[in-house]
Amino acid sequence: MIVVMQKGATEEQLQEVVQILEDKGFRTQITRGTEKNIIGAVGDKSRLLDLAIEAMTGVEKVIPILAPYKLASREYKPEDTVINIDNLSLGGHDLQVMAGPCAVESKEQLLEVAHLVKNAGAKILRGGAYKPRSSPYSFQGLEEIGLKYLARAREETGLYIVTEVMDTQKVDLVSYYADVLQIGARNMQNFPLLRAAAKSGKPVLLKRGLSATIEEWILSAEYILKEGNSQVILCERGIRTFETYTRNTLDLSAVPVIKYLTHLPVIVDPSHGTGKWRWVQPMAQAAVAAGADGLIIEVHPNPSEALSDGPQSLTPENFNKLMNSLKPIAQAVGKKFDLSGTPEYFGYSQVI
Amino acid sequence: MIVVMQKGATEEQLQEVVQILEDKGFRTQITRGTEKNIIGAVGDKSRLLDLAIEAMTGVEKVIPILAPYKLASREYKPEDTVINIDNLSLGGHDLQVMAGPCAVESKEQLLEVAHLVKNAGAKILRGGAYKPRSSPYSFQGLEEIGLKYLARAREETGLYIVTEVMDTQKVDLVSYYADVLQIGARNMQNFPLLRAAAKSGKPVLLKRGLSATIEEWILSAEYILKEGNSQVILCERGIRTFETYTRNTLDLSAVPVIKYLTHLPVIVDPSHGTGKWRWVQPMAQAAVAAGADGLIIEVHPNPSEALSDGPQSLTPENFNKLMNSLKPIAQAVGKKFDLSGTPEYFGYSQVI
Amino acid sequence: MIVVMQKGATEEQLQEVVQILEDKGFRTQITRGTEKNIIGAVGDKSRLLDLAIEAMTGVEKVIPILAPYKLASREYKPEDTVINIDNLSLGGHDLQVMAGPCAVESKEQLLEVAHLVKNAGAKILRGGAYKPRSSPYSFQGLEEIGLKYLARAREETGLYIVTEVMDTQKVDLVSYYADVLQIGARNMQNFPLLRAAAKSGKPVLLKRGLSATIEEWILSAEYILKEGNSQVILCERGIRTFETYTRNTLDLSAVPVIKYLTHLPVIVDPSHGTGKWRWVQPMAQAAVAAGADGLIIEVHPNPSEALSDGPQSLTPENFNKLMNSLKPIAQAVGKKFDLSGTPEYFGYSQVI
Amino acid sequence: MIVVMQKGATEEQLQEVVQILEDKGFRTQITRGTEKNIIGAVGDKSRLLDLAIEAMTGVEKVIPILAPYKLASREYKPEDTVINIDNLSLGGHDLQVMAGPCAVESKEQLLEVAHLVKNAGAKILRGGAYKPRSSPYSFQGLEEIGLKYLARAREETGLYIVTEVMDTQKVDLVSYYADVLQIGARNMQNFPLLRAAAKSGKPVLLKRGLSATIEEWILSAEYILKEGNSQVILCERGIRTFETYTRNTLDLSAVPVIKYLTHLPVIVDPSHGTGKWRWVQPMAQAAVAAGADGLIIEVHPNPSEALSDGPQSLTPENFNKLMNSLKPIAQAVGKKFDLSGTPEYFGYSQVI
C-alpha cells in the first residue's frame, strides 16, 4: 500500500500515519519528494485490511498495490481451474456451449428446444424458471414448475441444466434441480446469495454485473471461493455504456484479462451482450477467438412468441449455423469443441 | 406502441404484425412512409404487455410510447406523496436530513454520533448493521447486535432509524428494529427483496443502482407500490461513469426529473455520491437547490478510524457547518428545514 | 512516481528500471514487499516526463503521484483567477450569467434575445455563428454574417459577446468580433485550436468534453495557459453516460473539484447539461449552490422555431424567472449577483 | 418521424404541430391513444430537417424513424465499398493490417519498424508525425520531418503510409506525403477537419470518438462522403467506459453493426482499444472473427523506449506471432489474408 501525503502535510501528520500502519503490523518506508512525501507499507495482511487511512489529516490518497482478492488469483493457483459438471469438463482445453430459451415457458417449448440444441452440439441446457425482470408487469417465470420441466429435459436429453437462482430462500430448491446455479448480473453483488449459492456445493455461473469492474467481479467470485466452493465459472454478458444501438456493450477484452488475473474459466453471453439475434453469431465467433471457455446462447423455437428476450434469441436454424461456424475458430485457438451428437456428425438423431 | 417495419418488409409481414397486435386487443393504424411503414398500436393494456414483436420478421424496432410504470407516475397520482415516519413528514414542503455512520461499529460510536447529529438538527439516524462490501475480507457489519444498538440510540435520542436490509430472510428482523428499511444500490433490482421489504409495511428507502436508468429505478419502486406499500422514498446516490476523481457521479438532474415523473419524494446521498468528505457540503447544498426532499449523510466521530467509508464521512464539526449552510438554500427554494434541537437554536442540549 | 514490479520480477529487471530512472535524474527508493517490490522515484521533472517504464519487462504498472498539470494548479497559484472581460469580472466573488440563443439565426432574432436577456440581468450574450452539428444536413451557422450580428448586438446593448470558434483558420476572424472565445466540447482536445485560441489573447471559455475526465479537461486548459494566456474559464456542460432521459449527465461535482484543484473560474451550462428547458432552472440553482462562478444559458424568443437546440432553450419569460430564483441562492453561498439593468430593479428599461 | 403529444395536450396544440409539419411538406397521420396521441409524419426530406417540434407546447417527444445519414447507408449502396490504396484493396474479401510505431521518433526507428512489419506481412505502415497528446508536456511529434521519414520508409519498403492530420492548415502537407489520412478519435467531430480531409481526395481513416455512438460516427463519415470523397475507412478503437483495467473498452460489436448499417469497411485498433500489448493478440483475433476488414497495430522495436504509447506496443517478435495467429481465423471467416513478403512464407527477406 502506498500512502500519498498532501503537499504541505506536516511531519506530525506523516508520523501519525506511519504509527498507525506499524501498529497494524506493516513495515513502512518513507520516500520524500520535492512536493509530496509518500509512505510505502508492506505486510502479509496488506490485502485484507480495511483501514481508513485516507480519512486522516494530511493524507491525499491511498493506493493499493496488491489485488484485493487472493483465492481467485492466478498467483494463488497458477493452473487453470476445470469445472466438472458430472463427467463434462468446462475450462482448460474444452469449449462448451450452453443454450436454450431465456425463460422456461412450457414443457413443450422447453423439450423442443432441448432436443434441438442437443442435436446442434450443445451439452448444457439453459432456461430461467425465476426471471429477474425490470418491470413487475413482465412475465416472472414459471418458478418451481419450470424447474421440474428442466429436470424432465435433462432426463430426456442428457443435457446438463444451468438455471438462475435469485433469492437465498430458493437456493436449496434450485440446487435440487440444477447442475449449475446461475447468479444473474443484477445479483452479482447480492452477497448473501453468493454465500448461499456457494454452500450448495454446485458449480456457480457468476455473471458480470452491468456496471461491475473486472476487479469487483473477481471479488464476487472470491466470496464464493471463500466459502470453500472452487467451482466458479465467470460469464461476461456485456456492460452498460452510452452506446444504445446494442443492448449492452460486450466487453470481450475481459476474456483474456480474466484468464490472466485468475485461474477460473470464463464464458461469454453474446445474446444479452448484444440484445439482437443478428449480432450473436459474429460475437460468439469473436468470443471464441478471444479465448473464451464457453458460450451461453439463447435459442427459441419461435422467437417472436418468446415471453422474454425474443429479439435476442436465435432460431434453431441459426443456432445450428452458429455452432458450425465456431468449429474452425475453436481449432485456430487450440480449443477442443465437441459437436458430437449432432446428426451432421454421427448421421443419426440423438433424440431419445 | 409504435412498430417500425424494415425498409423492404413485405405487406404480408406488416399484416402479420397488425394481426397479432389486434389479437392482443390493440387498435392499430398504419402510416406508410416513402421508405418505411410504421404501425401505431393503442390500447388499455399497452404498458403491461410483453410482446416479442421485435423478433418478428420484417420488424425493425418497437418504440414504447407510454411509460412502463403506472402506480409511481405523476399521472396516476398528481399530488406529492408525503411519507410519515411516525409523526415526522418526509416529502412535500419538508426537508429532512438522515445522518450517522456508514456502519454501526460499537454502542459507544453509535450513541456518540446519534447525539451529535441530533444536536445538529438531523431527525433520522442512519447506520448499517448489514454491510454490502465488495470484498469478502472487509468488515461486514455487526448484524443483529448492530440493530439493537440502533434501537438503543432511538430510545436515547428520539431519532428515527433507517438501516439497510440485504436478504429476504432478514426482512422481518430488520423491520422489527428499523423505522425505514433501506434497499442499497446493489440490490435495487433484487426483486424478491423489493417484494419482501414492501410487505413489511415500513417505509422503504430505495437507492438508485450504480448503473440504473431513471426508468429502471422507478420500475423498482413500482415493485414495492404494487405490493400495496405506498411509502417509497427514492435516493439518488451517484451513478457509475468514466470519471474517477469522484467515487461516483452524483446525478442531481435526477431530482427534478423524479419529481416530474413521479409523486414520490426523492433524497440525495452526497457522501456516496462523491466519496470524499470535501465535496459533501457543496453537493448537499446543490441537492437542496435542485429540489431534493432530504439528504442522507455519513458522519463519524473519527473518520480515520471508521471501519467503512471513512474518507467520505464528515466530522461532527463539518456536519454542523453543513446543516447551517443548508438553511438559507432551503428557504430560497421554499422548503421548511427544522433545525430545532440544536444548541445554536435552543441554547441547550437536547440529549436525553 | 511509483513503479510497481510484477510478482516474480527478477532483481535484474528491478535494477534496470532503477538505472533508467536515475539516468533521467530521478532519486529512487525501493520498498520490498512480501509479494511485490515497488520503486519510488522523485525529482523535479517528475510531472513533465513521458517515460515508457510500463513497457519494461518485469514492470506491472506505473502510478503517477503528482498531477500532470502545473500552471492550472491551485498549488502553483493559490488565489482565484478573476477574468476581466473589459470592466466585467468573472470569477472570485461575482456570479455572471451568459445567455442567448444556441445559434445566431437572423439579426432580428439575435437583437430581440439580446435585449431580453440584458433586461433580465445577463451581462454576456452567447450565440453561435459557427455550429458544430453531428449531422452535415443540420444548420451549420451563419458564419461571418452571424459574427457581424453579434457585434451589432453588443453595440446596441452593451452586452459582451461569447461565441464558438471551431477551426484554427477562423481564430483571427472570430477574435475580431468576440470578447470571449468559446472552445466547444467536441474540440476540447483539438490541440492546435487550443493553441491558436490562446494566442488570440482573448479570454477562452473551455467546455468540458463529452467524455473528458476532470484531469484531461484541466490539461487542455494547461495548453492554453502554457501559451501565456491566463484567461481561461472552464465550463461544465454535462458528460455522456448511460442515462438517456437527460441529454447529458450534468456533473456538478466538477464545480467544487475544479475550484479545489485549480485557480480557474468554472461556470455551468445547464441547457446542454440537461437538454430540456424544464430542467434548466433547478440545475442552474444547483450549480450556483455548488459554487459555480457563472452560468451559460440558452434563451430563444420562440424555442419551437429555433434552428438548433430548441427543446433546451428557455423562453424569455422562463429565463427571467430563473434569474430571479438565483438571487437568494447566490446570496446564501456568498456570491455577488448583479441583476441591475433589469426593469424590476431600476424601474426603467435599459434597451437603447 | 413520430411526434408523441403529452397526456392532456389540447386539440389545438396537436393541430398546431400538424400544421407546422404539413407546412414543411410532410404528410401526417394522427393515432389517438387512450392516454396520449401521436402524429406520424412522412415525407422525402424527413431525414434532412432540423425542426424544433420538441420545443412546442404540448409535445412530449419526437422520435425519428429514419437514420439521419444517407450516403453511408447500406440502403443507399448495398454492395461493400472497397478502398483502393494504389493497387491494394481494403474492404470486401481482403484483410489488411496496418502496423508501425505510435509516433515517428527518428529515421532509424521508423525504418527499422517498417522493414520488420513488412516482413511480418503488413502492407501499410502507421506512424504519427503530429501527435494529439492530453498533456502539453508530452512529445508532440516530429511534424513535417516525421512525414519525410514516412515517405522515405515507403520508398524503401513499398509499404503504404497512414498518418494522422490534426489541423485544417496541415491537410495539404500531410496529404502530400500520406496514402491514407487518419482522423483521430479526438477529432471525430472536428467538422472543418472532416471536410478538409475529404477534399484532399485521399482515403480517410476515421477513428471512432471516445464516447461517440455508432450513429454519430457514421454521421461523421457522412460529412466526408457528402464532400464527394467515398473512400472512408471506419476504425473502432475502444470507447470510454467505467472499466479502468483496460485503457478503453474495445466495442467489437461495432464491427458487425457497421457492416450491417453501412457499406464502408471497418478496421479495429486493438492497441488503443486495450492499452496493453498483452491483450493485443487475443483482441486482434477476436476482431477478425467478428468480421473486421483490417487491423491497425502499434509495433515498436523497443517498446520501453517509445516516446508514446510504449505499453501498448508489440515487439516485432510478438507482432510476427500475432500475424501468424490470424491466418486460420481469417480463413474461418472467409477473408483473404496475404502474408506474402515474409521470410516464413517465401524463404527470403524482402528487406531492400
Automatic annotation (TrEMBL), chains A, B, C, D:
EC numbers, comma separated: 2.5.1.54
Xref: InterPro entries: Aldolase_TIM (IPR013785), Class-I_DAHP_synthase (IPR052899), DAHP1/KDSA (IPR006218), DAHP_snth_FXD (IPR041071), DAHP_syn_2 (IPR006268)
Enzyme class, first EC level, given as a word: transferase
Domain DAHP synthase ferredoxin-like positions: 1-66
A single GO molecular function term of this UniProt record: aldehyde-lyase activity
Keywords: Transferase
The DAHP synthetase I/KDSA domain, residue ranges: 90-327
One Pfam family, short name: DAHP_synth_1
Superkingdom of the source species: Bacteria
GO biological process assignments: aromatic amino acid family biosynthetic process
Matching NCBIfam families: DAHP_synth_Bsub (TIGR01361), PRK08673.1 (NF006421), PRK12595.1 (NF009239)
PANTHER family: PHOSPHO-2-DEHYDRO-3-DEOXYHEPTONATE ALDOLASE
Name of the featured protein: 3-deoxy-7-phosphoheptulonate synthase
